[in-house]
Amino acid sequence: RLAASRAASHEPAFMTDGTRIEVVANLGGPADVAAALENGAEGCGLMRSEFLFLDRATAPSEDEQLEHYQAIATGLEGRPLIIRTLDAGADKDVPYVGLPREDNPALGMRGVRMSLWQPDLLRTQIRAILRVEPFGQAKLLLPMVATLEDLRRVRRVIDEEMQSLGRTTPIEVGIMVEVPSAALTASQFAREADFFSVGTNDLTQYTLAMDRMSSHLADQLDPFHPAVLRLIGLAAEGAKAHGRWVGVCGSLASFPKAAPLLIGLGVTELSATAGAIPEIKALVRTLDRKRCAEIAQEALKCESGEAVRHLVATVWPEV
Ligand code: PEP
Ligand code: MG
Protein backbone atom coordinates (compact mmCIF):
# COMPACT_ATOMS: atom_id res chain seq x y z
CA ARG A 1 0.00 0.00 0.00
CA LEU A 2 1.14 3.51 -0.75
CA ALA A 3 1.52 5.76 2.23
CA ALA A 4 -0.91 8.61 1.70
CA SER A 5 -0.22 11.28 4.28
CA ARG A 6 -2.98 13.69 5.21
CA ALA A 7 -0.87 16.76 4.57
CA ALA A 8 0.20 15.52 1.12
CA SER A 9 -3.38 14.76 0.14
CA HIS A 10 -4.10 18.49 0.32
CA GLU A 11 -1.35 19.35 -2.16
CA PRO A 12 -1.73 19.13 -5.95
CA ALA A 13 -0.45 15.90 -7.53
CA PHE A 14 2.45 16.22 -9.99
CA MET A 15 3.95 13.21 -11.75
CA THR A 16 7.72 12.66 -11.66
CA ASP A 17 8.01 14.34 -15.08
CA GLY A 18 6.09 17.41 -13.82
CA THR A 19 2.69 16.65 -15.38
CA ARG A 20 -0.15 17.75 -13.14
CA ILE A 21 -3.09 15.41 -12.68
CA GLU A 22 -6.18 16.98 -11.17
CA VAL A 23 -7.78 14.75 -8.58
CA VAL A 24 -11.36 15.78 -7.87
CA ALA A 25 -14.42 14.20 -6.28
CA ASN A 26 -17.78 12.88 -7.38
CA LEU A 27 -20.56 14.48 -5.36
CA GLY A 28 -24.25 13.71 -4.92
CA GLY A 29 -25.11 16.97 -3.16
CA PRO A 30 -24.04 19.61 -0.60
CA ALA A 31 -23.74 17.00 2.18
CA ASP A 32 -20.79 15.37 0.37
CA VAL A 33 -18.62 18.49 0.10
CA ALA A 34 -16.98 18.30 3.54
CA ALA A 35 -15.69 14.75 3.10
CA ALA A 36 -14.40 15.60 -0.39
CA LEU A 37 -12.38 18.53 0.91
CA GLU A 38 -11.09 16.59 3.93
CA ASN A 39 -9.71 14.01 1.54
CA GLY A 40 -7.98 16.62 -0.60
CA ALA A 41 -10.37 16.98 -3.55
CA GLU A 42 -9.33 19.82 -5.87
CA GLY A 43 -12.92 20.38 -6.90
CA CYS A 44 -15.83 18.33 -8.16
CA GLY A 45 -15.57 16.45 -11.46
CA LEU A 46 -19.12 15.11 -11.38
CA MET A 47 -22.06 16.45 -9.41
CA ARG A 48 -24.89 14.01 -10.06
CA SER A 49 -27.82 16.43 -10.06
CA GLU A 50 -30.39 13.64 -10.34
CA PHE A 51 -30.49 13.17 -6.56
CA LEU A 52 -32.32 16.47 -6.25
CA PHE A 53 -34.97 15.21 -8.67
CA LEU A 54 -35.59 11.73 -7.26
CA ASP A 55 -38.15 10.72 -4.61
CA ARG A 56 -40.47 13.69 -4.91
CA ALA A 57 -43.79 14.53 -6.56
CA THR A 58 -42.76 17.52 -8.71
CA ALA A 59 -39.57 18.89 -10.21
CA PRO A 60 -37.48 21.31 -8.10
CA SER A 61 -38.00 24.95 -9.07
CA GLU A 62 -35.23 27.12 -10.55
CA ASP A 63 -34.68 28.81 -7.18
CA GLU A 64 -34.55 25.53 -5.27
CA GLN A 65 -32.01 24.20 -7.75
CA LEU A 66 -29.96 27.36 -7.54
CA GLU A 67 -29.86 27.11 -3.75
CA HIS A 68 -28.65 23.50 -4.00
CA TYR A 69 -25.95 24.19 -6.61
CA GLN A 70 -24.86 27.40 -4.89
CA ALA A 71 -24.43 25.57 -1.57
CA ILE A 72 -22.03 23.17 -3.28
CA ALA A 73 -20.15 25.92 -5.14
CA THR A 74 -19.77 27.96 -1.95
CA GLY A 75 -18.71 24.86 0.01
CA LEU A 76 -16.00 24.21 -2.57
CA GLU A 77 -14.56 27.68 -1.91
CA GLY A 78 -13.93 28.58 -5.53
CA ARG A 79 -12.71 25.17 -6.69
CA PRO A 80 -14.16 23.97 -10.01
CA LEU A 81 -17.62 22.39 -9.93
CA ILE A 82 -18.87 20.29 -12.83
CA ILE A 83 -22.63 19.92 -12.66
CA ARG A 84 -24.15 17.17 -14.74
CA THR A 85 -27.61 17.92 -16.05
CA LEU A 86 -30.38 15.54 -15.05
CA ASP A 87 -29.43 11.98 -15.90
CA ALA A 88 -32.77 10.27 -15.36
CA GLY A 89 -34.44 7.40 -17.13
CA ALA A 90 -33.40 3.74 -17.20
CA ASP A 91 -32.59 2.77 -13.60
CA LYS A 92 -33.28 6.29 -12.25
CA ASP A 93 -37.03 6.84 -12.52
CA VAL A 94 -38.46 10.33 -12.08
CA PRO A 95 -42.23 9.70 -12.09
CA TYR A 96 -43.39 13.29 -12.75
CA VAL A 97 -41.55 13.38 -16.09
CA GLY A 98 -44.00 10.81 -17.45
CA LEU A 99 -41.38 8.77 -19.27
CA PRO A 100 -42.81 6.36 -21.83
CA ARG A 101 -42.71 2.69 -20.90
CA GLU A 102 -39.95 1.09 -22.95
CA ASP A 103 -38.75 -2.46 -23.38
CA ASN A 104 -35.10 -1.38 -23.18
CA PRO A 105 -34.95 1.76 -21.04
CA ALA A 106 -31.13 1.75 -20.97
CA LEU A 107 -31.28 2.22 -24.74
CA GLY A 108 -34.21 4.59 -24.60
CA MET A 109 -35.25 7.94 -23.23
CA ARG A 110 -32.54 8.66 -20.70
CA GLY A 111 -29.94 11.32 -19.91
CA VAL A 112 -29.75 14.13 -22.45
CA ARG A 113 -32.39 12.43 -24.60
CA MET A 114 -34.92 12.79 -21.82
CA SER A 115 -33.88 16.41 -21.33
CA LEU A 116 -34.41 17.18 -24.99
CA TRP A 117 -37.74 15.41 -24.90
CA GLN A 118 -38.82 17.59 -21.93
CA PRO A 119 -36.94 20.81 -22.75
CA ASP A 120 -38.70 22.88 -20.07
CA LEU A 121 -37.06 20.82 -17.36
CA LEU A 122 -33.68 21.27 -19.06
CA ARG A 123 -34.20 25.00 -19.51
CA THR A 124 -34.99 25.50 -15.83
CA GLN A 125 -31.94 23.53 -14.80
CA ILE A 126 -29.65 25.40 -17.17
CA ARG A 127 -30.92 28.74 -15.85
CA ALA A 128 -30.23 27.65 -12.27
CA ILE A 129 -26.69 26.55 -13.18
CA LEU A 130 -26.01 29.77 -15.09
CA ARG A 131 -26.99 31.75 -11.98
CA VAL A 132 -24.37 30.10 -9.71
CA GLU A 133 -21.87 32.69 -8.43
CA PRO A 134 -19.09 33.42 -9.12
CA PHE A 135 -19.81 32.86 -12.80
CA GLY A 136 -17.25 30.47 -14.29
CA GLN A 137 -16.88 28.20 -11.25
CA ALA A 138 -19.71 25.93 -12.38
CA LYS A 139 -19.39 24.05 -15.65
CA LEU A 140 -22.04 22.01 -17.43
CA LEU A 141 -21.77 18.32 -18.22
CA LEU A 142 -24.25 16.49 -20.45
CA PRO A 143 -24.98 12.80 -19.87
CA MET A 144 -25.56 10.10 -22.51
CA VAL A 145 -24.58 12.21 -25.49
CA ALA A 146 -24.58 9.93 -28.54
CA THR A 147 -24.70 12.30 -31.52
CA LEU A 148 -23.47 15.78 -32.36
CA GLU A 149 -27.09 16.81 -32.70
CA ASP A 150 -27.64 16.05 -28.97
CA LEU A 151 -24.90 18.51 -28.08
CA ARG A 152 -26.01 21.14 -30.59
CA ARG A 153 -29.60 21.07 -29.41
CA VAL A 154 -28.57 21.59 -25.78
CA ARG A 155 -26.15 24.35 -26.82
CA ARG A 156 -29.06 26.21 -28.44
CA VAL A 157 -30.99 26.10 -25.14
CA ILE A 158 -27.89 27.29 -23.25
CA ASP A 159 -27.37 30.17 -25.69
CA GLU A 160 -31.00 31.26 -25.35
CA GLU A 161 -30.87 31.21 -21.56
CA MET A 162 -27.50 33.01 -21.50
CA GLN A 163 -29.10 35.77 -23.55
CA SER A 164 -32.16 35.94 -21.39
CA LEU A 165 -29.98 36.24 -18.26
CA GLY A 166 -27.69 38.76 -19.95
CA ARG A 167 -24.60 36.53 -19.55
CA THR A 168 -21.94 37.35 -22.09
CA THR A 169 -19.02 35.14 -21.00
CA PRO A 170 -19.61 31.57 -22.18
CA ILE A 171 -20.02 28.75 -19.67
CA GLU A 172 -17.88 25.67 -20.26
CA VAL A 173 -19.91 22.78 -21.63
CA GLY A 174 -18.56 19.23 -21.58
CA ILE A 175 -20.00 15.90 -22.59
CA MET A 176 -19.94 12.57 -20.84
CA VAL A 177 -18.20 10.00 -23.01
CA GLU A 178 -20.26 6.98 -22.00
CA VAL A 179 -21.73 5.86 -25.30
CA PRO A 180 -19.26 4.24 -27.74
CA SER A 181 -20.34 6.58 -30.56
CA ALA A 182 -19.04 9.57 -28.60
CA ALA A 183 -15.62 7.96 -28.15
CA LEU A 184 -15.46 6.81 -31.77
CA THR A 185 -16.22 10.29 -33.12
CA ALA A 186 -14.39 12.16 -30.38
CA SER A 187 -12.50 14.48 -32.72
CA GLN A 188 -15.80 15.79 -34.07
CA PHE A 189 -17.20 16.28 -30.57
CA ALA A 190 -13.98 17.96 -29.46
CA ARG A 191 -14.60 20.82 -31.90
CA GLU A 192 -17.79 21.70 -30.06
CA ALA A 193 -17.42 20.45 -26.47
CA ASP A 194 -15.05 22.20 -24.05
CA PHE A 195 -14.06 18.99 -22.28
CA PHE A 196 -14.86 15.29 -22.00
CA SER A 197 -15.63 13.27 -18.92
CA VAL A 198 -15.58 9.53 -19.43
CA GLY A 199 -18.38 7.64 -17.68
CA THR A 200 -16.86 4.19 -17.47
CA ASN A 201 -19.94 2.64 -15.84
CA ASP A 202 -22.13 3.21 -18.87
CA LEU A 203 -19.26 3.02 -21.35
CA THR A 204 -18.55 -0.50 -20.10
CA GLN A 205 -22.24 -1.40 -20.22
CA TYR A 206 -22.65 -0.22 -23.81
CA THR A 207 -19.30 -1.48 -25.09
CA LEU A 208 -19.73 -5.01 -23.76
CA ALA A 209 -23.53 -4.94 -24.22
CA MET A 210 -23.91 -6.04 -20.60
CA ASP A 211 -26.65 -4.51 -18.49
CA ARG A 212 -25.04 -2.80 -15.51
CA MET A 213 -28.11 -3.76 -13.46
CA SER A 214 -27.83 -7.48 -14.20
CA SER A 215 -26.62 -9.50 -11.23
CA HIS A 216 -25.82 -12.39 -13.59
CA LEU A 217 -23.30 -10.33 -15.53
CA ALA A 218 -21.79 -8.38 -12.64
CA ASP A 219 -18.48 -10.29 -12.62
CA GLN A 220 -18.02 -9.92 -16.36
CA LEU A 221 -18.83 -6.21 -16.47
CA ASP A 222 -15.20 -5.14 -16.29
CA PRO A 223 -14.18 -1.51 -16.87
CA PHE A 224 -10.54 -2.68 -17.26
CA HIS A 225 -11.54 -4.57 -20.42
CA PRO A 226 -9.18 -3.55 -23.25
CA ALA A 227 -12.15 -2.64 -25.46
CA VAL A 228 -13.21 -0.02 -22.91
CA LEU A 229 -9.63 1.25 -22.57
CA ARG A 230 -9.35 1.56 -26.35
CA LEU A 231 -12.41 3.79 -26.45
CA ILE A 232 -10.99 5.95 -23.65
CA GLY A 233 -7.78 6.24 -25.69
CA LEU A 234 -9.77 7.33 -28.75
CA ALA A 235 -11.61 9.93 -26.70
CA ALA A 236 -8.30 11.30 -25.44
CA GLU A 237 -6.77 11.42 -28.93
CA GLY A 238 -9.78 13.25 -30.31
CA ALA A 239 -9.71 15.71 -27.44
CA LYS A 240 -5.99 16.38 -27.78
CA ALA A 241 -6.34 17.19 -31.48
CA HIS A 242 -8.51 20.16 -30.48
CA GLY A 243 -6.73 21.15 -27.27
CA ARG A 244 -9.47 19.83 -24.97
CA TRP A 245 -8.92 17.98 -21.72
CA VAL A 246 -10.31 14.60 -20.70
CA GLY A 247 -11.32 13.40 -17.26
CA VAL A 248 -12.76 10.14 -16.03
CA CYS A 249 -15.65 10.21 -13.58
CA GLY A 250 -16.90 6.62 -13.78
CA SER A 251 -15.98 4.14 -11.08
CA LEU A 252 -12.79 3.13 -12.92
CA ALA A 253 -11.25 6.44 -11.78
CA SER A 254 -11.63 5.37 -8.14
CA PHE A 255 -9.40 2.29 -8.60
CA PRO A 256 -5.76 3.31 -8.02
CA LYS A 257 -4.75 0.47 -10.39
CA ALA A 258 -6.47 2.27 -13.24
CA ALA A 259 -4.69 5.59 -12.73
CA PRO A 260 -1.44 4.75 -14.60
CA LEU A 261 -3.43 3.39 -17.55
CA LEU A 262 -5.84 6.31 -17.75
CA ILE A 263 -2.99 8.81 -17.50
CA GLY A 264 -1.06 6.80 -20.09
CA LEU A 265 -4.04 7.10 -22.45
CA GLY A 266 -4.04 10.90 -22.08
CA VAL A 267 -6.46 11.54 -19.21
CA THR A 268 -5.47 14.50 -16.99
CA GLU A 269 -8.32 14.60 -14.48
CA LEU A 270 -9.57 11.81 -12.21
CA SER A 271 -12.89 12.27 -10.44
CA ALA A 272 -13.18 9.68 -7.69
CA THR A 273 -15.05 8.90 -4.52
CA ALA A 274 -13.65 11.05 -1.73
CA GLY A 275 -12.04 8.18 0.17
CA ALA A 276 -9.90 7.13 -2.82
CA ILE A 277 -8.32 10.56 -3.35
CA PRO A 278 -5.34 10.43 -0.93
CA GLU A 279 -4.10 7.13 -2.35
CA ILE A 280 -4.59 8.23 -5.95
CA LYS A 281 -2.61 11.41 -5.32
CA ALA A 282 0.18 9.48 -3.58
CA LEU A 283 0.36 7.10 -6.53
CA VAL A 284 0.33 9.85 -9.19
CA ARG A 285 3.44 11.37 -7.54
CA THR A 286 5.37 8.15 -8.19
CA LEU A 287 4.43 7.84 -11.88
CA ASP A 288 6.25 8.88 -15.03
CA ARG A 289 4.05 9.85 -17.97
CA LYS A 290 6.13 8.15 -20.67
CA ARG A 291 6.19 4.90 -18.75
CA CYS A 292 2.41 5.10 -18.22
CA ALA A 293 1.91 5.62 -21.96
CA GLU A 294 4.04 2.56 -22.79
CA ILE A 295 2.16 0.33 -20.36
CA ALA A 296 -1.21 1.68 -21.52
CA GLN A 297 -0.30 0.64 -25.08
CA GLU A 298 0.55 -2.82 -23.79
CA ALA A 299 -2.75 -2.96 -21.90
CA LEU A 300 -4.64 -2.33 -25.14
CA LYS A 301 -3.16 -5.57 -26.50
CA CYS A 302 -4.25 -7.65 -23.50
CA GLU A 303 -7.02 -10.19 -23.97
CA SER A 304 -9.09 -9.44 -20.87
CA GLY A 305 -9.60 -7.02 -18.03
CA GLU A 306 -7.96 -9.54 -15.74
CA ALA A 307 -4.84 -9.56 -17.91
CA VAL A 308 -4.77 -5.77 -17.77
CA ARG A 309 -4.90 -5.78 -13.96
CA HIS A 310 -2.18 -8.39 -13.88
CA LEU A 311 0.00 -6.23 -16.12
CA VAL A 312 -0.44 -3.23 -13.81
CA ALA A 313 0.33 -5.35 -10.75
CA THR A 314 3.55 -6.57 -12.38
CA VAL A 315 4.78 -3.08 -13.28
CA TRP A 316 3.54 -1.29 -10.15
CA PRO A 317 3.39 -3.95 -7.39
CA GLU A 318 2.61 -1.32 -4.76
CA VAL A 319 -0.90 -0.59 -6.18
C1 PEP B 1 -20.90 6.51 -15.63
O1 PEP B 1 -21.75 6.04 -16.39
O2 PEP B 1 -19.74 6.05 -15.54
C2 PEP B 1 -21.21 7.67 -14.78
C3 PEP B 1 -20.27 8.33 -14.13
O3 PEP B 1 -22.51 8.01 -14.64
P1 PEP B 1 -23.59 7.19 -13.76
O4 PEP B 1 -22.85 6.11 -13.04
O5 PEP B 1 -24.22 8.20 -12.90
O6 PEP B 1 -24.48 6.68 -14.86
MG1 MG C 1 -23.57 7.15 -16.76
TrEMBL record:
Organism annotation = Consotaella salsifontis
Part of the whole protein covered: 530 to 848 of 848
Q: Which domain of life is it from?
A: Bacteria
Subcellular localization(s) per the UniProt record: Cytoplasm
The protein here is known as: phosphoenolpyruvate--protein phosphotransferase
The record's comment on protein family reads: Belongs to the PEP-utilizing enzyme family.
